[in-house]
Amino acid sequence: MTNGSVDAKRASRSRRAMAVGLASAALGACLSFAGAGTSVAAPPPPPAPAPVSGSDAHPQQPPAFMVDAIRLWEQIGWPNATNIGNREWVNAGSFVNPSTHQRVNELLFTGGTYNDRDGSLRRFMNTGGAGPSSVNAGGAFQEYNTTVYHVPENSNIPGRDTNRIVRNIRTGDVFWTTDHYKSFHYMGRH
């Protein structure tokens, strides 16, 4: 090996050592800066599970203003009851308004999959709240609105409110909420 190649190797090692040293110093400065009264934000904690009230032995009946929509969903066979469907408006019927002689559609909205992100409904079912046959039953949940919108033909579709039901498509267990999934009430199987 010649003197020139030995010198080149030494210079290369020296540059690498200097780069590692600089990187370590920079990391140390960042860590000491963060430790000197500045904290690194921790990720937010996961949301608390939504409370579920009622049980198989003590189902909670929905408020009167939800009952008509639930009956309509049952009468039209729980759309998407065997396979989670899309978010879509469903025409549950129509009638002619006697005072205006205009046809009025009864619209309901099925909201597609309810993901149960915090696991509160599955936890409720798996701990026996929905009865022993729902424990470990699995299945996906379908969301349904519980407001019947009476809309004259060719009118704009209204905005949705916070009233919903969620139904397990495998077991038929139904939960209702009036606060858009902040809390649930078990109403039994439908």
UniProtKB/TrEMBL annotation:
Keywords: Hydrolase, Nuclease, Signal. Residues 1-41 form the signal peptide. The keyword Signal applies. It comes from the Bacteria. Residues 39-61 are annotated as: Disordered. InterPro entries: Ribonuclease/ribotoxin. This is Uncharacterized protein. The lineage of its organism: Bacteria, Bacillati, Actinomycetota, Actinomycetes, Kitasatosporales.
